[in-house]
Structure formats: structure tokens, C-alpha cells
Design a protein that fits this description.
A hairpin with a 5-residue loop joins β6 and β7. The protein has two domains: 104 residues, Dihydrodipicolinate Reductase, domain 2 (2-Layer Sandwich); 107 residues, no CATH class. It contains seven helices and eight strands, in the order ααβββαβαβββαααβ. By secondary structure, it is of the alpha/beta class. The protein is globular, with a radius of gyration of 19 Å. The two termini are 21 Å apart.
């Protein structure tokens, strides 16, 4: 689940060495982006039995193994003024390590199964799409492709990703036989959304597989 969580937000976590201001519109909601980054940090910290404590405008990460504390802040000026405070951002070595860790999780480990009494049965797949613009810069986006139990695309599941991650666990139904058709739908989605042009090469990576069953 951690891998799906972070890759669902990969548009925030672009590789900085490929970043170009010409390719991106200004961020309209910095607070929301930082809230998502903090949620990711807290999730990763908990997975390593570390503790992230918020105190005033600072965040203290406590390492359970060494007992050492690392203090972060979200303000660049504060970080520059205090050598003991580090700026919490996507280019921080610890954040980069966590991102790479979950992005490189094996395919066998990214699937989950949940159950719901409100959403239709089916499979929700999450993909990382990589294309290149005219300047050769790498552009990464996320695509969500869902298929109901009848083999038809089901938009309600694609619109409720956050809700689906909070559903109770269930036993897998072994729906991987749907993957070939889902890949066909993915290609149509990429072309329809203009993420790649006809004949343009692109790469796709499955980063999330969620089977939804009824109670």
C-alpha cells in the first residue's frame, strides 16, 4: 500500500534534475502539496518504527535505533539560519531514499484486496506513465484504470482512490487475468488524454493493484 500511496502522488515528486519551469504551471496549492508530503513522511516513519513529532513550526524525526533526532522545517529561510535544522523537501536525501524504496517494490508486493458495501466489485490499477516532451525532458504522470467484474471500465472506482485505501482488507480474488484488457484500456487513455501522441513511445509501470469485493 505504501508504494501505491507515494506513486499516486508522483506528480509532486518529480526528478529535480529534469525539472524545467517551462514545462509546469505554477503550483496552485502549495499547502496541499506540503500536507501530502508530510503525510508521506509520517507513513514512512511509522513503517520504520520512527516517530515524527510536530512542535511549533518544526518536525522532529526520532530514530528508534540510535535515539538521534533530526529536526525539519518547511521554511527555507529558517533552515538556512539554523545549521541544526534541515529543510523538509522532495530533494532531501531521506525523502529520496523513501521514494526510491517504494517505487522499486516488486510487482508481487504491490497488490492488495479490500471489501466495500458501497463501491462496485472490480480491479483498480494504478500506473506510472513516462513520456518526453519536445525538449527531451522526462514527464511522469499517473493513470488509473479500473475494470468492474463484468470487464467494463468503472469510473466510480477511479474517483475514489483515497477512500479505497481506507477500506478493510479482504482475500484476493486472483483477478490478474484482467491485466491484458486493462493494458489495452491504458493505451487508449494515454492517447485520449494526450499524454502521448499516436506513434510516440512511452513507458508504463504498474505501481498499484487493488481488488475490490463486496461484503
Amino acid at each position: 500500500m505504501f508504494l501505491s500511496y507515494i506513486d499516486k502522488r508522483i506528480q509532486v515528486f518529480q526528478d529535480l534534475d529534469q525539472f524545467s519551469l517551462d514545462d509546469y504551471a505554477p503550483l496552485s496549492n502549495i499547502d496541499k502539496s506540503m500536507a501530502e508530503l508530510l503525510a508521506f513522511v509520517k507513513t514512512c516513519a511509522n513503517s520504520e518504527q520512527s516517530t515524527l513529532i510536530e512542535k511549533d513550526d518544526f518536525y522532529i524525526l526520532r530514530d528508534p535505533n540510535t535515539g538521534a533526532n533530526t529536526t525539519f522545517c518547511l521554511d527555507r529561510d529558517q533552515a538556512l539560519e539554523n545549521e541544526e535544522v534541515e529543510l523538509l523537501g522532495i530533494d532531501h536525501p531521506r525523502i529520496e531514499r523513501w521514494i526510491n524504496l517504494y517505487k522499486n517494490t516488486s510487482l508481487e508486493s504491490i497488490g492488495i484486496a479490500v471489501q466495500s458495501d458501497k463501491l462496485p466489485e472490480g480491479v483498480l490499477s494504478i500506473w506510472e506513465i513516462e513520456t518526453h516532451n519536445e525538449k527531451g525532458h522526462s514527464i511522469r504522470t499517473i493513470a488509473k484504470i479500473d475494470m468492474d467484474k463484468n470487464g467494463q471500465r468503472s469510473i466510480p472506482l477511479e474517483r475514489n482512490v483515497d477512500e479505497i485505501f481506507r477500506l478493510p482488507a479482504s482475500k484476493t480474488q486472483g483477478e490478474t487475468n484482467k491485466l491484458p484488457k486493462i493494458e489495452q484500456l491504458l493505451e487508449r487513455e494515454i492517447l485520449h488524454r494526450g499524454k502521448a501522441k499516436e506513434g510516440q513511445s512511452y513507458s508504463s509501470k504498474l505501481i498499484g493493484w487493488i481488488e475490490i469485493s463486496e461484503y
